[in-house]
Amino acid sequence: MTTELDDASAPEIRSNTPGSFPYGVLRERHPALIQRVRNAFPYGPEQHRALDALLRESTDPAGVMEPLPAEAGEGDREQWERWGSGEHVGRSWFDAPFLWAESYFYRRLLDAVGYFGPGPWQGVDPFRPFKQAELESPEAHAELATLDRLAKEPQETQARALLHGSLWGNRADLGFQLTRTPAGTTSSALLADDSDHLWSLLPPGAGNTVHLVADNAGRELVPDLLLIDHLLRHAHAARVILHVKPHPYYVSDATPTDVLDALNHLKQARGEAGETGTRLWQATATGHLSLRTHPFACAPLPYASMPDDLRADFATATLTILKGDLNYRRLVGDRAWPATTPFPTPTSYFPSPPAALRTLKSDVIVGLDEKTEHTLTTTEGPTWRTTGEHAVIQVRHTNP
Ligand SMILES: O=P(O)(O)OC[C@H]1O[C@](O)(CO)[C@@H](O)[C@@H]1O
User: Region annotation Disordered: residue ranges (predicted)?
Assistant: First the structure.
């Protein structure tokens, strides 16, 4: 789905420029993450050796991507071949497309800690302790308590607050927190706000189907679920399909286990939060809320390359809400687009109207007006793209 035009006007983002954001992810964030994972589990020498090797290989600008280990199943290898391992494995981590290299890093990290087994660490999510700590944080509990007050507000106020809760929940991402300075220096701001379009696509009682492609677990997934409950309860959606990752990915990305944890967290809460949890639990039993774990959710590729079955699934949506930074990169393509490229241009291939709810944590951005881009660049320098202080709600409100 990539055209020569894309390559010329918007080259793919790579990590081979020292000082750039992607270079820093490979050189600084990934080592910090490996250290955090080591500290969180009593892994044995085998896992530590594998983590050492991955650390050496993936942070050395002269190092090359090693293949998946022999234990990786035939099917998995074939899948990664379809996703481009033949082209990238054996070459530099830094010269590969950033999206490809970063995704492969997570796949290899899971291997290093024995996630794909066989062995005692099989199926043990190396990011689970961080996800759980976040769910149990005082902030997470305080967020739930605000629902009692919100329930007394007019429905429109509730809708706006829940949409914004889901949007800004994306800032709680754990990977992002690894190197972020806690006190932001700029005020949070919505750089594009198509929320009126979003609501106009979901008239109550029209039998709408909403797909929500989740991003992070914990303090992002909980507000996503609250938004889903609102959509179902007020008939903006007759049916919601929640897409999560089939296995751990990008530190805090949500898996089915994380959905279960979030639902239990809600169900066990008092007041409105508890009632919401019970309603969502029932919605799964009646099929009004269902889960998807397509393997392509963990692919190192943009959605423009999605397989036919996933395309057909998304085509059933009245609206597909894609959460977070990584989904944004995959939706528009992880490319150095001019920031003023209209949002419908790189998303024209998507089989249903897409809505991106994203805080900005990496370089790629489209759909801004010239004045906004100019003001941000002159007042903040290039970091406005990556600090997570800014966000967008962008909607392409037409079918392809
Ligand atoms: O959780 P989100 O919002 O998808 O953010 C993930 C982002 O974090 C990073 O992995 C950097 O830590 C980006 O490269 C990536 O796009």
Answer: 1-21
Ligand 1 centroid vs 24 CA: distance in angstroms? 12
pLDDT in tens, 344-379: 999 999 999 999 999 999 999 999 999 999 999 999
Q: Is 43 exposed, middle or buried (0-12, 13-18, 19+ CB in 10 A)?
A: buried
* Pocket lining: 165 vs ligand 1, CB cutoff 6 Å: no
Global ipTM:
0.97
Quick one: which of 189, 190, 289 has its CA closest to 244?
289
3-state secondary structure of 37: helix
| 176, 251, 392: residue to mutate for ligand 1 pocket, most atoms within 8 A of CB | 176
Helix 45-59 / helix 98-112 crossing angle, nearest 10 deg: 160
Distances (CA, A) of 225 to 24, 43, 199, 276, 284: 33, 34, 17, 9, 12
Q: Which domains does the chain have, with CATH numbers?
A: 14-126 (1.20.930), 132-395 (3.40.50.10880)
209 and 238 Cβ atoms separated by less than 8 Å: yes
The DSSP 8-state label assigned to residue 193 in this structure reads E
274 CA distance to ligand 1 middle (Å): 30
On the question of pLDDT at 177 being above 90, the answer is no
Within 13 Å of residue 65, how many CA atoms lie on the same side as its CB? 27
Q: How far is CA 222 from the centre of its chain?
A: 14
- Which of the pair, 171 or 282, is modelled with greater confidence? 282
Distance 183 CA to ligand 1 centre (A): 19
- Rounded to whole angstroms, the Cα distance separating 267 from 192 reads 34
CB of 25 sitting under 6 A from ligand 1: yes
